[in-house]
Amino acid sequence: MALVSVALGRLSQAFLLLVAMSLIGFIGIHSVGNPVFNVVNIETATPEDIRQATIALGLDQPIWRQYLVFIGNVVGGNFGTSYIYHQPAFTLMISKLPATLELACVAMLIAAPLGTALGLIAGRRSGSLFDRAVLKVSVSALSIPSFWLAMMLILVGAILTGWFPSGGRGVTAAFAGHEWSLTTRSGAWHLALPALTLAIPNIALIARLSRSGTIEVENLDFTRFCRAKGLSPRRILLRHTLPNISMPIVTIIGLQFGGMLAFAVVVESIFSWPGVGKLLIDSIQLLDRPVVMATLTFIAVAFVALNALVDLFHAVLDPRVRLSSQG
Q1: Is residue 214, in this structure, part of any structural domain at all?
Q2: pLDDT one-digit tens code per residue, 263-322
Q3: Cβ atoms of 158 and 164 closer than 8 Å
Q4: How many structural domains does the chain have?
Q5: Quick check: is 5 in a domain?
């Protein structure tokens, strides 16, 4: 029952957050401009053509009525048809999702083990030259804006050395009904720089978190007892320290993965990666409201769902979370 109450509480919070996001996003995209001028030929269109297009798109209605119509359509699984691409908005967004998922998954597969390993070693050797180097480099990595990091990687990895392509997705191959870059050598090479751009700040964040946790656990009584028993430092680190610091690491991995899905817009735009983020930027520029709302809704649902899963994972593994919800 305690776990159920935790789940119900998180679901209610998620519902309210999604409603607030949809309202803010809807009002925001309707404040940017009039999409009718991107639908009709403005050079040859008459005022009557513009009026008819406005009525056809439902933009002659008050904004509150448009929002209610939008919510009703969303409940029925309909986000409308793209003004520019003339495809169902949700279908168009889903067609771009594999590229974003692939980019986020590869970046996190780089960041999670590497950041954890660096943090464990730095925490185990607290105060050493390696520890100080990890701290300084991680601070620098967290301070660098993602657009600057992307441009520097393009400069070094693509222009100066020519090792990697500067943009695009390369050759893809079909798997499970979708196109994937990792299934070809060219696609994997094109994936390297954008994945590194997303991974580097997360390596730094996870490394700092695991380092602080390692230092704390290394000073606890049970760790001293393990050393007194004669266990090797490697065994203590992997069998005792790592499990005890895994909870915050899993939490930050879940949250950062959601952040990658939601905020890969800059990286996808710079590297011309045809994912959900680039679709969102292009749709905003073209005032393609159905696609913008479908993309924003998906990003919000994905982010909220990942946060809820992390919270529920805490409740499963940590009895204190369940007890606090009962109190």
Answers
A1: yes
A2: 788 888 899 888 888 888 888 888 888 888 888 888 888 877 777 777 777 666 555 555
A3: yes
A4: 1
A5: no
